[in-house]
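Handout, tutorial session.
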Amino acid sequence: MHTIGSLGKITDIIDGCSDNPSRFLGPHPVEGSGNHKSAAVRAYLPGKEQAWLFHPGHGQSTPMKMIHPAGLFEVMCPMDGVTEKGQYQLRVDGGSGQMKTLHDPYAFPSYFTGFDLHLLGEGKHWNSYDKMGAHLRTVNGVSGVNFAVWAPNAKAVSVVGDFNDWDARSHQMNRIGSSGIWELFIPGMAAGEKYKYRVRQADRAVDKCDPYGFAAEMPPRTASVVADLTTHKWNDQAWMEQRANEDQLAKPMSVYEVHLGSWQRNLEEEHGWFNYRYLAHELVKYCKAQNHTHIELMPVSEHPFTGSWGYQTVGYYAITSRYGTPEDFMYFVDYCHQNGLAVILDWVPAHFPKDDHGLRRFDGSALYEHDDPRRGEHPDWGTLIFNYGRNEVRNFLVSNALFLFDKYHIDGLRVDAVASMLYLDYSREGDNWLPNEYGGRENLEAIGFLKEFNEQSHLQHPGVLTIAEESTAWGGVSRPTFDGGLGFSMKWNMGWMNDTLRYMRKDPIYRKHHHGELTFSLIYAFTENFVLPLSHDEVVHGKGALLDQMPGDMWQRFANLRLLYSYMWTHPGKKLIFMGDEIAQWNEWNLEAGLQWDLLEWESHQGMQKLISDLNAMLVHEPALHEVDFEGSGFDWIDCNDWQNSTISYVRKGKNPEDFVVVVCNFTPNSREDYRMGVPMPGVYKEVFNSDNARYAGSDVINTDEFHSDNIAWNGREQSIQFRLPPLATVVLKRVSQ
């Protein structure tokens, strides 16, 4: 019979700080006589005074001997198939005379293969989410949950929760070799169980939520929740097949950016939040009426502070419980797809918050972040920066993107704060930064990560979009990695946004002196695949709503905003507006207040909503406005030099150059009854859009008649047309016959 002293660090097990409890607990073969092999089955049942080994096959229980007063038991039995497969059970006194029967968590094999560990160590286990975290499994006929977490510098890790009264001694995890991964299969657990990892660091024990956890408690509670991601039956097969086989860059794209918690407020609920399923129906109905093609959601990954809008994420793999369950969110995406709407998520691999239950110093060391604050902290946001050079960290992030595409059928990720990732001196003054190995300011590790993220996203999920919010002149953001680029599908055009808004805020009388701010974007418009964004960032932090940023009296403010949108929709590039922009909200966005839907009682606000709907319909209907957004062949200036009158005119062309529209924008409040403009081809032209139309609460200076081009040279073209040019408005003309 083995003695306790020969079986390892029994004290560590009793104290709940063993790094490999399976070396002692569970079934262990012992040398016997003859052909009969025996096993010593040991169990640690803190606080229990009696225990039995139960064989379900023949219904017999064998008393176990207490070998330590802390609740350590042992029994000798035959090493048969039941014992080897962990199908025996333990029986203990559950209190009040009730017997409790449970399977032994230390009797089951590891979920990880050697190849898994090799890929994780290399940072190339792209579906690491299938092994890491909490997974429902059935092992040898026994159902339960397999837990796995990466914490290489921890002294010990336990799974704790309501199921074991948060006692770290009950379910101590096993360290898998030198991988840094800790694992334990807990029989009998099911979806819905709350849990955390109690990580014993050098100087303390900290309860951490699961970095790979698929669900979480409603904040401010912070436990992870076991979730089954296989219950939803998807009905978007046709959408997914079509997405993979289409050129997304040549399709119309009008994005409606949404913060789910404030788009509509639920006055019957404490926090004012609706469920994903309700929002699916309401948003789809609304976006279809507005003719949007894409919905972009501000981050829905789990975040502790609602006021961060989701940009300070703790649970990268957990869809926020504020609006429902993972299955509820799958329903949301599925319903959007069935109704022809793509779903883009804001994704934040640039930083994470310092909350103690999150990733910060996860195992007592700077595991996910850099140890040196000059590399590891954002001075602006008070958050931490990922160590992109560490294989496991890079794997964690790339796998997270692939997880969202895989499990939730997401159509695209808009990557937040890319500029902060690219530059080591981002927002750092003086010498408060560390150069790269070549002495430069480029973050080579982050660049490598972004390239890998883009390559794997497009390789494994054809048709998805990756979109960079990148505010500098970094070259090739949306160019392929094989061509030296970062590999994004598209990039937000922050230059266009800043220049255009700065121009539009000026009184029209001064605009002629700033004409270059209006035309400058076309100098670089085709250097990247651009999205033109009027996002939430333009209507917060004291900037005011877009309508409030427009100059002039009440009429001019609305006319200027209609002009801004119409110019934006006819400019090369995909389109994005933030919720509330389409109803000309007066107040800047406040997530606690929701949108000012009551403004739609007024004709002027109704008109703006109709304008966006019609612009979207024209964008979809006219190939010239979406097929060639990213090449110079899709755009021609007619006149970009009329600075004295603050007008511009241009041609937008489809893949067929003869499929074109002509656009003219008047940025002054003066109408011109006999405005002449050169046109690309002779023929009959018709007005197909006018932002001054009475339908939009404009002054209705419109062109109802068709007009033949004249053989009068103008703007360097042989043919020209004459028409009414309304004040502060955009007119779109189309050739309807030769």
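The second record follows below. Compare its token runs with those of the first.
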Amino acid sequence: MSLLSDAAVFLGAAVVAVPLFKRIGLGAVLGYLVAGALLGPWGLRIITNVEDILHFSELGVVLLLFLIGLELQPSRLWVLRRAVFGLGGAQVAVTGALIGLTGAALGLRADTAAIAGVGLSLSSTAFVLQILAEKGQMQSQHGRSAFGILLFQDLAVIPLLAVLPLLSHGGGAPAEGSAVASSLKAVAVLLAVVAGGRYLVRPVFRAIAATHAHEIFTAAALLVVLGTALLMVQVGLSMSLGAFMAGVLLADSEYRHELEADIEPFKGLLMGLFFIAVGMSANIGLVVARPLLVLGLVLGVMALKAAVLFVLGRATGHARGSARDLALALPQGGEFAFVLFGMAAGQGIMDRLLTDLLVVVVTLSMALTPLVIALGDAIVKRWRRGAPEREFDAIDDNDPRVIIAGYGRFGQIVSRVLRTRKIPFTALDASATQVDFVRRYGNKIYYGDASRLDLLRAARADKAKIFVLAIDDVASSVKTAEVVKQHFPDIRIYARARNRQHAYQLMDIGVTVLERETFLSSLEVAARVLEGLGMRERDARATIERFRAHDEKVLLRGHAVHNDEVKLIEAAKQAAQELEGLFESDEIAPSGRDDKAAAV
């Protein structure tokens, strides 16, 4: 097949497989791998030149490492230093050592066992981050720890890729003088890259940006990445190391975000091609010929990694549930293992059969991860049904003037303002995870369900003057409002509503003081937009105030018919017409001119 035909086949496979696998919750990476397996020599045999495609697609890994380098600002690394270098370093070291020692005990050479151990200790950054984002767990304790571990793994790949050529068995042992010369040459090139990135590349980008030729800026970005990568290859180092260094050197530049946006599409397509090529190279015949060996290795690696992650999580202060979630998130192999094993085979460090076996193990472990997470969640839910629940905290606040129910973003800001005026308050939240998290930052908060009458009595709701209802979940918010209204009618409720429908439900109960979650902030931005378009600040604020007053009237009118969808839609259309009429006669005076001049 021609190059053009191959490209059409790859694009077609990606367009079909990736959306399908994302739809069923298995992720894009697995979609690429399965598509490659179907296209390659072990599938339909549509594509056979796997090695050539694999070498070309490694450009995707090069671009990925450049983008990782762009993200590694020193300030960000310092904030994440414990999760990255502490937990992440321990995970790679312990897991890699255990797997490597096992491999050595089974008869592998020391260098081969070490590469296999470190490669299998890595997890899939793309896979895990996607799953955590879909489950809304990126800001959880185990989510942040998982991110730190993945970041360290990405960093650990860099020196590994640089060292692999030095372990090569292809050319014999180099002479001492030759080794010294090669080392000096490598150091010189590294210093040249650092100096060029600081004193040459930025002025070049500045000059190109001044021409406003966006396509040339993109070409220059690609040239910097590929040029640095090729320079590293000339001195016996890896392309990936060069791309990573180029990214780090530009991480603090004013062009970081534009470079990231320009490179991202190329990286995405080439990484997809890389995964397809890996899928094509996966030796499916091994699974058919030795299914018990493959399955045993997959389950063994995943169980070992999960056990290490759980122990390390507990050792670094994670609650049992958080450590368990961390172990379930990262037991699979990662995309960089494909790179390491492929390069190790090319350098003669691993034989082809072992490489094929490890690639199959990593691929199947990635395929099993969503199933493992789903099974783990099901087991935990079943266990929790029969397990005793954590008891609510005993409340020792005797005279709170304010009770805050819900200690998310909204409730925390209210509490901070009250604290500045030394106004006593009691804060409650029904999420044990949230309570444990905010307590680490010195906040005083109680674990408890504010819809429970006994808890409200313990919180002395009968003595408080104001009840701030800041619960995120709509059903829990409405239930809490009902209990407070029924049993503590003298306390005033100030509520946060997520949207109009939530507001209507609270108004049904009798809550009259409420704010929709993003209403006021949206109005503030709208006012600034009007000012940015040239409207005077006084006119912009008057426009926003008129809109706010009209919208609140519409909210009250809509409440009367919100249970009748037909009438509610009609009321919304009528309100839109009224709003147009309200501003129809207004004229916006251009900046710097008075009203009379504008009228003329």
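Points raised in discussion: Strands lie at 402-405, 425-429, 446-447, 466-469, 492-497, 513-516.
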